[in-house]
Amino acid sequence: MNMREKILNIASSLFDSRGIQASGVDTIILEAGVAKATLYKHFPSKNQLITAYLRDKSDKFYAWLNAQLSSKKAESLELLLLLCELMEQWISQPEFRGLPFHIAAVEFPEAEHPINQYSVVLSAELQGYLCQIARHAGAKDPEALGQQLTILFEGAALVERLTPNTGAANRAKLAAMTLVRHAI
């Protein structure tokens, strides 16, 4: 593991467990065992470190999801139904702590803050991803279905973060499956 990855992994662990704002640069430096200059060499600002954290979390999620979905042919109802199952599975994991871009947007609520703006980008990226899958699966209105799925899964992620194991992920999956069946 290179130094950049080490710093990002330590920061990610701290952001996930303590919160982004509560994890100061000095704490990250101490936990990573690096000099301040080393951290700033790889991440010139805390905002850039946070952005890297959010990007890394999103990339890992999409890599996992793409690997799971690759077993289904593109134009099929089964692809979308599997997507619904996988979203429930992801949100229901014991280590699930919510959507990082939701948490970042809450911690940086000012609309002009770069982290809030990047969180908006990541939310739009998720919706675009779901629209693309709906398009490939043959949905009549892939943009509408993608947005509906985004609303359901982002909502379920928030509910499960606030009140774990209440069945929100399963209910969102069932609602999504109903939408999917009517959209194809």
TrEMBL record:
<keyword id="KW-0238">DNA-binding</keyword>
<keyword id="KW-0805">Transcription regulation</keyword>
<dbReference type="InterPro" id="IPR009057">
    <property type="entry name" value="Homeodomain-like_sf"/>
</dbReference>
<dbReference type="Pfam" id="PF00440">
    <property type="entry name" value="TetR_N"/>
</dbReference>
<dbReference type="InterPro" id="IPR001647">
    <property type="entry name" value="HTH_TetR"/>
</dbReference>
<protein>
    <submittedName>
        <fullName>TetR/AcrR family transcriptional regulator</fullName>
    </submittedName>
</protein>
<dbReference type="GO" id="GO:0003677">
    <property type="term" value="F:DNA binding"/>
</dbReference>
<feature type="DNA-binding region" description="H-T-H motif">
    <location>
        <begin position="24"/>
        <end position="43"/>
    </location>
</feature>
<dbReference type="InterPro" id="IPR036271">
    <property type="entry name" value="Tet_transcr_reg_TetR-rel_C_sf"/>
</dbReference>
<keyword id="KW-0804">Transcription</keyword>
<feature type="domain" description="HTH tetR-type">
    <location>
        <begin position="1"/>
        <end position="61"/>
    </location>
</feature>
